[in-house]
Structures are given as structure tokens and as C-alpha cells.
Write a structure and sequence with these properties.
Family: Belongs to the short-chain dehydrogenases/reductases (SDR) family. 17-beta-HSD 3 subfamily.
CATH architecture of the largest domain: 3-Layer(aba) Sandwich
Pfam families: adh_short
Low-confidence stretches: 235-240
Helix content: 55-70%
Strand content: 5-15%
Mean pLDDT: 81
Number of strands: 5
Subcellular location: Mitochondrion
Oligomer: single chain
CATH topology of the largest domain: Rossmann fold
InterPro entries: 17-beta-HSD3-like (IPR052149), NAD(P)-bd_dom_sf (IPR036291), SDR_fam (IPR002347)
CATH superfamily of the largest domain: NAD(P)-binding Rossmann-like Domain
Number of helices: 7
Number of domains: 2
Main location: mitochondrion
Largest sheet: 5 strands, parallel
Shape: extended
Strand order of the largest sheet: 3-2-1-4-5
Order of helices and strands: HHEHEHEHEHEH
Distance between the termini: 89 Å
Length: about 240
Amino acid sequence: MAVASDSFRLLAGELIKKTERLRDMLAVVGLIVMGKVAVDTSIAFLSAVRIFLLSKLRSLSNFKEKYGPWAIVTGATDGIGKEYARELARLGVNIILMSRSIEKLTRVAQEIEAEFHVETQVVQVDFSGGRSIFDKISEAIRGKEIGLLVNNVGVMYEMPMELCELSQDVIWQHVNINMGSLTMMCWLVLPQMLERRRGAIVNLSSSSSVGPLPYMNIYSASKSFEFIDLCGLLLASAVS
């Protein structure tokens, strides 16, 4: 009986030691998880501060002095482009609105002038027109000190389709609007920004740019171009 009792105590002791080691390992894992949660929470909090607080503080600064008195917004009559134009106007920046419809351009320009008391200029242009349209744009913005450019104009498929089902018009629209317009608008305004050493360019892309999109491959490829073009633009500006 004494031998059995000693064996039991020995076994129990070994189990207790293993349990303690397991407990210590779980404690370490718990600390790591808690640390990750704390870091993620801190990052989310700082991001929220940056987005919702610092952006508000920045909005109090004089955008005209910081960037320049005029902003160009392409695709400015609806959706994101229109809201960019309104927000920049709220900050006191004069707006050059570019889009296809003169009726929409005129209406939005009148709304912005009445609400925010800034100057506006409208440029009716169809960005699917390719190279020929940029002489008109260059002439329209001649003499304007462009501090901000928002490349918002874009096009996408009406519905998912295979490449061979697309018309040539749709393909060239994606090339000219999603890729050509962004590059050429940067080419038009970037020299004066670099010369003044101030200005900002916003290129709107899409989550579709992260990889091939089945049945919308031309669209996703053109959006990838926008993202890569933006990265190259930032690098070139930093080097300059």
C-alpha cells in the first residue's frame, strides 16, 4: 500500500508540474493576444483621430495659401466628384468642374457659387475623346494657379462580360478615360505645382485594382494602372 501511495504521489506531482507548465504557456499566449489586441486598438484609435480630428483641424487652415486658389475636379457633376468639388469649395477654393454634360455642369457650378461664394469655371469635355481633347483643357485652364487636381472621372462595364464580347468603343473608353485622362491631367498641372513647390493631386482608383477581376478584366487593369501611376507620381514628386 505504501508503494502504491508513493507512486500516486509521484504521478500526481508530475501531472501538477505539467499542468503548471501548460498554465505558464497559456499565460504567455494570453499576453501575446492581449498585446496584439492592444496594438490593434491603439492603431484603430489613432487612425480615427487622424481621420476625424486632424482632418477637421486641417480643414481650418487656409487651403488657398497652402495649395493654391484653384482646384480641378473631373467627373464633377455626380457622386464622389461632386462631393469633392463641394468640400473643396467649402474650404474656400475656387473650382474648375469638368464633365460631359453642360447642363449638369452649369447646375452644379451655380449651386456651389450660391452656397460657398467661390468662383467656378466649367469645362465641357468628354474624356473618351483621347489625345485631341487636352489642347482644349490646356487652353481652358491657362493662367489659373491650380493647387489641387482630383482625377475622379471613370468608366466601367455596364455588366460583366468576357473580353471578346466587348466592343472596341468600350475598350477604348477604359483606356482613354480611366488611364489616359488621369495621366494627361497630371501632365498638364504637375509642372506648375513643382515650380511653386506646393499642390496636391488625388487619383481615385478602386479595390478592383488589387488583382484580376473575372469578366471585368479591362476595368480592373485600368484601375491598377491608376494605382501604379499614383505611386509613380508620388515617387517622382518626392525626388524632385
